[in-house]
């Protein structure tokens, strides 16, 4: 078997060339340069956009700690693909991200998300809102004990999401302490989300029962947006459902009806669609 040697540089991450093309075509690096990112005052500094680009590449190739980004720093081919003269070290990444204040994060991400959605030639979105629980095993900032069905008593974060399922993109996200409720501060979150989507039409809003509050419903109705929000089965709602006498069959073992119902904290009664499904192995609905 013949062996040949070459002076050409090689890398295991040649596919990053496609990501470089994506970055150039979207123009996101140019947009980042306009957002007033924090810059170091050192004469030996690496520009902020270059730091962010190399951070992206680190994530794309599987890095999940700042120390892992050394893989990017020592790969000459990656530096040539992206046109970097130098790549930041793990400590440089840490110092860079610590410069971001909450107000700076708020300003930059609203501008960036708004710009992003303006590039998408699609309208009439379905906007979904949900919360999640992320269990923490260390002393991360904001990690608190709260609602955690999988690990009761363990510290967690309780992030809030808004996403556009039509294009599978997150429209907004806030990280919150684990001791916050599902709908805590959600009106400010919705105001920010609709500011991001200011040039788009939201044709439908969907959320789970954690957001079925009078303030959220009023907020959506004031914008004349159709919505589907699950209700919590409080005792008085269950009593109203038990009183339904007319059901319409829509499938095998599946019926639908509707009632007017006013939950505590609502300023008015609203139409509630009720779905009844036969339990498996039972003859009655």
Topology summary:
Layout: H1 16-26, H2 28-33, H3 48-60, H4 70-73, H5 76-82, H6 90-98, H7 102-118, E1 125-131, E2 134-135, E3 144-145, E4 155-157, E5 160-164, E6 169-174, H8 186-196, E7 202-207, H9 214-222, E8 227-229, H10 235-242, E9 248-251, E10 254-261, E11 270-277
Parallel strand pairs: 1-7, 7-8
Antiparallel strand pairs: 1-5, 2-4, 3-4, 5-6, 9-10, 10-11
CATH homologous superfamily caption of the largest domain: Ribonuclease H-like superfamily/Ribonuclease H
Q: Characterize the overall form.
A: elongated
Share in β-strands: 15-25%
Mean pLDDT across all residues, rounded? 89
Polypeptide structure, described:
There is one protein chain. Helix content is 33%, strand content 19%. The chain is α+β, with helices and mostly antiparallel strands and 285 residues long. Strand 9 and strand 10 (254-261) form a beta hairpin. The model has no long low-confidence stretch (mean pLDDT 89).
Descriptive labels:
single chain; 285 residues; alpha+beta; Nucleotidyltransferase, domain 5; 3 domains; 5-stranded mixed β-sheet; 3-stranded antiparallel β-sheet; 10 helices
Summarize the structure in short.
By secondary structure, the chain is an alpha+beta fold. It is 33% helix and 19% strand.
């Amino acid at each position: 078997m013949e062996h040949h040697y070459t002076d050409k540089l090689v890398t295991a991450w040649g596919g990053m060339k496609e990501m470089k093309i994506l970055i150039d075509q979207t123009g996101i690096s140019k947009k980042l340069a306009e957002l007033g990112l924090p810059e170091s005052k050192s004469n030996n500094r690496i520009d902020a956009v270059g730091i962010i680009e190399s951070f992206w590449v680190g994530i794309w190739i599987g890095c999940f700690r700042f120390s892992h980004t050394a893989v990017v720093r020592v790969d000459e081919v990656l530096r040539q693909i992206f046109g970097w003269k130098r790549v930041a070290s793990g400590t440089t990444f840490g110092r860079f991200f610590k410069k971001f204040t909450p107000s700076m994060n708020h300003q930059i991400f609203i501008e960036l998300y708004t710009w992003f959605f303006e590039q998408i030639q699609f309208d009439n979105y379905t906007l979904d809102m949900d919360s999640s629980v992320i269990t923490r095993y260390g002393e991360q900032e904001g990690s608190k004990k709260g609602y955690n069905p999988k690990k009761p008593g363990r510290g967690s974060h309780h992030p809030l999401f808004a996403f556009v399922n039509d294009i599978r993109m997150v429209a907004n996200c806030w990280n919150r302490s684990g001791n916050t409720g599902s709908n805590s501060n959600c009106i400010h979150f919705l105001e920010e989300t609709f500011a991001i989507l200011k040039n788009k039409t939201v044709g439908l809003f969907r959320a789970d029962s954690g957001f079925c509050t009078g303030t959220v419903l009023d907020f959506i109705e004031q914008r004349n947006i159709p919505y589907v929000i699950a209700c919590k089965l409080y005792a008085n709602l269950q009593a109203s459902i038990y009183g339904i006498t007319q059901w319409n069959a829509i499938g095998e073992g599946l019926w639908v009806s509707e009632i007017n119902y006013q939950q505590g904290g609502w300023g008015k009664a609203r139409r509630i669609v009720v779905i009844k499904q036969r339990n498996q192995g039972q003859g009655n609905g």
